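Query structure, 202 tokens:
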């Protein structure tokens, strides 16, 4: 993934973002970035929690995904249904924590968060004509959780809600093509990149 995220690209992207995004989203983004830096800080209490989590190990993926189902919960039908609607990240499920964290360095991330995901995923965005703003800037974490999620594909919110985090609903619905929407955004748009304008599915 060399050549990604150069200073030049970043500043171009910043321009695009400033041009297109609502003030509301800019504020949210700034706050989240702030939160990321805050939570990766080194307060002793946090460190203790992080370390004990690592040394105690994590619950079995099935139990974890059943959202607090507790011991043995993975055996009942309800828990199985919860698992099938949710998702656990491959390397988290297989306890490959070192795929992303540096255990020797207090479990900090191996790479900055905007580069981390590209270590294992390229999403075939190389050479695509249209790359979605947050994807180009490595903002995977805005839509996906790194460990697990209650929703498919590790998404941080269900269905169209993830899109409305940044795109004002009223302005989306103003467009003629979005009148009487009965299907989800993802039926027509690719969330990452496309050869078609407006990220339309190929
Ligand atoms: C795909 C990459 C990835 C893998 C694999 C991974 N993590 Fe993480 N982890 C992250 C990211 C990204 C964060 C958020 C860091 C931040 O906000 O600074 C995080 C945060 C954490 C935190 C801080 C508290 C929290 O939940 O936000 C702990 C503790 C943690 N991970 C433990 C683990 C353990 C234990 C494993 C292995 C079972 C693991 N991680 C596997 C990417 C990963
Ligand atoms: C250490 C390698 C590694 C890193 C780093 C990594 N992933 Fe993954 N990811 C995997 C593997 C392995 C799978 C499972 C592949 C499969 O099942 O096809 C996966 C699957 C996924 C899926 C599909 C999950 C599903 O339910 O189908 C998503 C979404 C995803 N990763 C997002 C991310 C994001 C976002 C990051 C950065 C925070 C990231 N990955 C970083 C290895 C990695
Ligand atoms: C705007 C929200 C958004 C952003 C940002 C985003 N994704 Fe996704 N991603 C999705 C959605 C929605 C899906 C569900 C699959 C679909 O409908 O195509 C998905 C699916 C995936 C999958 C599984 C299916 C596939 O296409 O391989 C992987 C892996 C993945 N994303 C990785 C990433 C990585 C890595 C990044 C950052 C470079 C990222 N995503 C950024 C919304 C997003
Ligand atoms: C993190 C904020 C964010 C999220 C979440 C997000 N977008 Fe975007 N989106 C942007 C930005 C920034 C642009 C403008 C830059 C660009 O053209 O890529 C954009 C552009 C687009 C465009 C192209 C508009 C044009 O004028 O070419 C489409 C279509 C789109 N988004 C659809 C979606 C869909 C569908 C989702 C939900 C899966 C989604 N977006 C989620 C930030 C976001
Ligand atoms: C039936 C297919 C379809 C669905 C479903 C759909 N779109 Fe679109 N979308 C389009 C088409 C076609 C365009 C190009 C519009 C044009 O040519 O003006 C577009 C354009 C866009 C644009 C850029 C132009 C604008 O109006 O700002 C955004 C952003 C966008 N869609 C977001 C979304 C979101 C968010 C959803 C889900 C709530 C969604 N779309 C659902 C077909 C669809």
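Result returned for the query:
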């Amino acid at each position: 993934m060399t050549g990604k995220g150069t200073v030049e690209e970043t500043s171009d992207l910043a321009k695009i973002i400033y041009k297109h995004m609502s003030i509301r989203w800019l504020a949210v983004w700034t706050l989240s970035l702030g939160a990321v830096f805050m939570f990766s800080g080194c307060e002793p209490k946090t460190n203790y929690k992080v370390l004990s989590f690592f040394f105690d190990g994590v619950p079995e993926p099935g139990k974890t995904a059943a959202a607090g189902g507790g011991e043995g919960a993975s055996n009942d039908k309800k828990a199985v249904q919860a698992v099938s609607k949710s998702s656990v990240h491959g390397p988290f499920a297989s306890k490959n924590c070192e795929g992303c964290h540096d255990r020797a360095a207090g479990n900090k991330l191996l790479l900055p968060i905007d580069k981390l995901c590209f270590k294992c995923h390229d999403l075939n965005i190389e050479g695509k004509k249209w790359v979605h703003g947050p994807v180009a800037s490595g903002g995977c974490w805005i839509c996906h959780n790194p460990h697990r999620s209650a929703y498919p594909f590790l998404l941080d919110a269900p269905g169209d809600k993830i899109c409305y985090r940044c795109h004002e609903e009223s302005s989306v619905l103003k467009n003629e093509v979005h009148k009487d929407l009965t299907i989800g955004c993802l039926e027509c748009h690719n969330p990452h990149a496309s050869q078609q304008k407006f990220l339309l599915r190929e």
